[in-house]
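Thread: quick sanity check before group meeting

JM: Hey all, I'm pulling together slides for Thursday and realized we never actually wrote out the predicted structure for the chain we discussed last week. Dropping the sequence here so it's in one place. If anyone has concerns about the input, flag it before I start.
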Amino acid sequence: MNWVPIVLMIFKIGVLGATIFFSIKSHRDGEKEQERERAANRQDAPAQNAFDPSTPDLKVDG
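JM (edit): ok, ran it. Output follows.
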């Protein structure tokens, strides 16, 4: 009966290790996906600071 705590401790460490591994993997995969989305948005987005010649100049000299 002395083997039961040893087996349960090994099982506990295995489950904890797998949980940590998949937690880190999921976090990194999420960061990669966000980076891909940011890169796609940068390529597809038009220039926001582009000059539009149709807008009147509202500055007044004086």
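AS: nice. The CA atoms of residues 13 and 19 lie 10 Å apart. The chain has one helix and no strands.
JM: adding both to the slides.
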